[in-house]
Amino acid sequence: MQSTVTLRDVAQAAKVSIATASRALAGEGLTSRSTEARLRRIAAELGYRPNALARGLKTRTTRLVGLVVHNLTNASFRVLAEVVQRRLRAEGYQTILCITADDPEQEAEIIATLADQRVDGLIICPTGHNGARLAALDSNGTPVTCVVRRDEMVEMETVLAADPEGAYAGTRHLLELGHRRIGLIVGRRETTSGRERLSGYRRALEEAGIAFDPSLVHAGPYEPETGLAGCRQLLDRADRPTALFVANHESALGVLRGLAERDLLVPDDISLLCYEDMPGFAWQRPAISVVDSGATAMADLAADRLLQRLRPNAAPPAETAREYRIGARLIQRHSCRPVAP
Amino acid sequence: MQSTVTLRDVAQAAKVSIATASRALAGEGLTSRSTEARLRRIAAELGYRPNALARGLKTRTTRLVGLVVHNLTNASFRVLAEVVQRRLRAEGYQTILCITADDPEQEAEIIATLADQRVDGLIICPTGHNGARLAALDSNGTPVTCVVRRDEMVEMETVLAADPEGAYAGTRHLLELGHRRIGLIVGRRETTSGRERLSGYRRALEEAGIAFDPSLVHAGPYEPETGLAGCRQLLDRADRPTALFVANHESALGVLRGLAERDLLVPDDISLLCYEDMPGFAWQRPAISVVDSGATAMADLAADRLLQRLRPNAAPPAETAREYRIGARLIQRHSCRPVAP
DNA sequence: CTGTTAGCGCATTCAC
DNA sequence: GTGAATGCGCTAACAG
Fold first, then answer.
1. What confidence tens digit (pLDDT) does each residue in B185-227 have?
2. Could you write out the DSSP letters of every residue in B2-65?
3. Residues at the strand D interface (CB under 7 A)?
4. pTM beyond 0.70, yes or no
5. What's the pLDDT at A313?
6. Is the pLDDT confidence value at B174 over 80?
7. Which segments in chain A show pLDDT lower than 70?
8. pLDDT 10s digits, A138-161
9. Going along B164-292, which residue ranges are E strands?
10. Which among A57, A62, A116 has CB closest to B57?
11. CB-based contact A303:A88 (threshold 8 Å)
C-alpha cells in the first residue's frame, strides 16, 4: 500500500509550495534549474504520478481518444485498431476502443459516453445515423475523424478507401485477362463501400464495351454466408462466370467453401480476385490475388489527421471538412489466369 | 456550441441548490418525488451530462477498466476484446484497450498510464515480467484479473484455458483413431500454453504406452511461419507422421500451406487437428476438427470475475488469488480419420 | 427534504 | 523564482 502520493506530498518532502512543485515537474523552465532537478528526483523517489483526472478537470484535456468501430472481425477494423492505438500512444494518448455492432443506438450511447469522459478526439466508422451528434462534438472543439465509411448526413473530415477506383482496377485486371462474364459478390447498396465497388465494376465493364448484367451481381451482408450463397447462385448458371470478384471481404471464406463444394479449382477452372488483403490470402494455396484497399494507410492517415487537429496551435475550425482517399493497389498472386481461348 | 452545461446550470434553472440537483439526479430517493422529476426534466432539456472527470475525482471511481492484450490477430484476444468490451459496457464500464506486443517495457508503461487514469479495474494477459506492478495495483484496491497467461512471479486471480487437458483430449482423439506418429506443432516452452499443451500431449502418449519422440515436436513463435517450418520438418521424415496436431494456433495457416505444397490431402493422406477454434476452420474444406479452448467462456469468466470484485459491497481482499480453468472441448469435423490398417 | 461547506488533485493567476 | 489563493465540476458530510 503506497499509492496515492500526490503533488502535495512531493511539495512537502521538498519543502516548497505545491505550486512550485507543479511548475518544476512541468519542466518548462518556470523554476530554477536546481529546484527542478531536486523536485524531479524527489518525485521519482516517492513514485509520484500525476492524477490524470485532476489534471484533466483543470486543463480540459485528457489525452484520451475514442476509437469506434463496428467489430474486430473485419480485417480493416482490426488493422485500424492496432495502428491507431499504436500511433496515438506514441504521442501520449490512450485509446478507448468501442464497438457499435453497426447499431445506431449503441453508437449514440457510445458517443455520449465518450463525450462524458471528455475525450480529446474521436476516430469513428459511423453507422450514418448519428451524424448530428458527431458534428456537434466536432464543432464543440472535440475533433472527429471518420474512417472507412462516410456519414452522408453531415460534412466531416473523412478518410476513405478509393473503392470506386479499386473495384475498377480489379475488374479491369480480370477484363485484361480476357474474362467477359465476371461474377461480383459485393456489399449491400446501403453501404458506401457496397455502392462504390459496384460502380467501379460497372464502369470497367462499360469501358470495355460489355453490357452490365445484374444477374452476375450478388449483394449481401458482410458475412461468409453471403459468399457461399452468391457463389452457388453464380455457379448454377448455365453460362457460368469465368471469374469471381469477391468485393465483400467477409464473404471470401464462404466463396472458397462454395468453390470447393463444386470441386472447382482456382485458377484452372475459375479465376478468383478478392477485395481487401489479409494474411490468410497470401498463405492460401494458390495464393489469392487481391485489391488491397490500404487499411494500414487509412489507419495511419486517420491518426495523422486527428493528431494534427489535436495539436494545441493548429485548429482552423473547418475550412469545409475535407475528404481523403487512400488509393487501392492490385496485388497479383496466383488465383487469376487468362481465360482459355 | 452548447456543450459544457454543468450541474450548476441545471440547479440555477430549477432554482435549487447545486447539491439538491446532484441528489435529485442521483435518484436514490434523497429528494422529494416532485423535485426529482422536475430536475430530471430540466436536466434533459438543457442536455446536461455529468462530467466524468469531476465525478471521478470526487468519488474515486471512473467506471473505466483497462484491457491489455498482446495483439488483435490472435483469435482468443479478439474474442476477449469483443466480449469483455460488451460485457463491461452493459454494466456501465468503458474499456480502454491497450496492446503490448508482448513487450514487457510497453506493458510496464501501459500499466502505469492506466493507473494514472484511475481505472477501476484491469483485465490483462501478462507478459510475465511486470507481476510486481500488477500485484501492487491489485493490493491498492484496483482489482486485476489475468487471462490466457499466468504471471508466474506472483499470485493473482487468473482465468486460463485448460490447456493440459485440452491437449490431452486432442492427442487422445488422434490416438483412438489409431495414429501412432503424431506430429506436434506448439508454442515455445517459455509460454504457459506452450508448456502445458506439450505436457498434455506427452501424457496422452504415455498412457497409450507410446514413447515420446522429441523429434516429432516442433516448437516456435506464434506465427504462420512456424507452422510452415514445422510442417516441412515433420513431413520430410522417412516415417512421416500420420497426423498433425497444430497446437500453436497462429501456425495453422502455415501448416495448411505446407500440406498443400506437398500435395497432401486432408484427411486422406494425413489427419489434421488444430487448437483454438476460429471461423475459418469451420469454413475450410474439409472443415477442420479442433480442440476449442473456449475463448468466449474465458472472456466471460474474466469479465464476471472482475465485475464481481468491482461491486461496491464485495471485496474480501484476497483469500489467496484463485485460478480458474475453462474446459476445452473437442469439436469433430472432417479433418481427422482413422489410420489405414 | 434541502442548503451550506468542504474538499478530490492539480494548474494558474496574482502578488511578492 | 516562488508562495498564496482560486476554481475546474462534482459528491458527501453536516446542519437546519
1. 999 998 888 999 999 999 999 999 999 999 999 999 999 999 9
2. -----HHHHHHHHTS-HHHHHHHHHTSS-S-HHHHHHHHHHHHHHT----HHHHHHHHS--SEE
3. A 15-20, 23-24, 30-32, 34-35, 54, 57-58; B 4, 6-8, 18-19, 22, 25-26, 48, 50-51, 54-55, 57-59
4. yes
5. 67
6. yes
7. 1-3, 313-319
8. 999 999 999 999 998 899 999 999
9. 182-186, 217-219, 243-246, 271-275, 289-292
10. A57
11. yes
Task: Please enumerate in sequence order all residues whose Cβ is within 8 A of that of B97, keeping only pairs 6 or more positions apart, or say none.
Answer: A81, A85, A95, A96, A97, B67, B68, B69, B81, B85
Q: Verify whether the Cβ–Cβ distance B64 to A261 is below 8 Å.
A: no
Interatomic CA distance for residues A199 and A168, integer angstroms: 8
- Measuring from the CA of residue A60 to each C1' atom, give the nucleotide at the shortest distance: D8
Nearest-by-Cβ selection for A118 from B51, B139, B140:
B51
- What gap in Å lies between CA A110 and CA B300, rounded to an integer? 21
Are β-strands A121-124 and A271-275 bridged in parallel, bridged antiparallel, or unpaired?
Answer: unpaired
- Identical fold at B64-161+295-326 and B163-293? yes
Q: Which three cell numbers stand for residue A229?
A: 450463397
- Count CA within 13 A, CB hemisphere, residue A190: 7
- List chain B domain ranges: 7-50, 64-161+295-326, 163-293
Please state which CATH number belongs to domain B163-293. 3.40.50.2300
Contact between A98 and B99 using a beta-carbon 8 Å cutoff = no
Q: Name the strand (E) or helix (H) holding A324.
A: strand A323-326
Nine-digit cell string for A135: 458534428
Nine cell digits for residue A80: 485500424
Q: Is the CB of residue A139 less than 8 Å from the CB of residue A100? A: no
In degrees, to the nearest 5, what angle opens at C-alpha A177 toward C-alphas A173 and A180?
A: 90
Let me know if domain B64-161+295-326 sits in CATH 2.60.40.10. no
